Amino acid sequence: MPEKIHLRKVSVIIFYNKRGQILLQARSGDVSKSGEKWGFFGGGIDGDETPEQAIIREIKEELNYNLKKFTKIGEYENQYFNLKQKNHRKLFRTIFIAPLNQEIMNSKVIEGDGSKLFNIEETKELKLVPGDEKVIEIFENYLKNPNRQKVL
User: Fold this and answer.
1) How many Cα neighbours within 13 Å face the side chain of 124?
2) pLDDT value for 51
3) What architecture (CATH level 2) is domain 6-144?
4) What are phi and psi of 111, to 5 degrees?
5) CA-to-CA distance for 17 and 92, rounded, in angstroms?
């Protein structure tokens, strides 16, 4: 009998500055689901939450920051093996971006082991959640688009 693949819907956000640097969350222990060392802020969509409601809640939980201005830039799905639960998962990500401000930079990371800025090329070399390379690709394509939306 084939293994059941668990679907998990998540919202992630890329906080970035004018130089294109990305703020990532350091992960280990309970925060690391698949052996990743770094990840985007965000998390699971609960119950009947919208992706927008989930990202606002997650950022409050992870940074104690009231997220107000953000833009959806994409979504995609991939499968990976969850090391902790020893099963295959399908992960559907909704991707948001927001400008990085001093208040976010000064926020204490409540979930995880801190945060650090990386440029896009450095980010590509990090041990991220399987499939997060597509998040970076979507972000790069967004930055290259001259008609991109303003952040809300």
Assistant:
1) 9
2) 98
3) Alpha-Beta Complex (3.90)
4) -110, 125
5) 26
pLDDT in tens, 86-141: 777 788 999 999 999 999 999 999 988 899 999 999 999 998 987 889 999 999 99
Diameter of the chain measured on Cα atoms:
52
Contacting residues for 23 by C-beta, under 8 A, at least 6 apart: 15, 16, 41, 100, 104, 105, 115, 116, 117
**127: phi then psi, degrees, rounded to nearest 5:** -85, 100
5 DSSP 8-state letter: P
State how far the alpha carbon of 148 is from the alpha carbons of 21, 22, 49, 120, in Å.
18, 18, 26, 18
Cα 62 to chain centroid distance, Å, stands at 12
Burial of 4 (0-12, 13-18, 19+ CB in 10 A): exposed
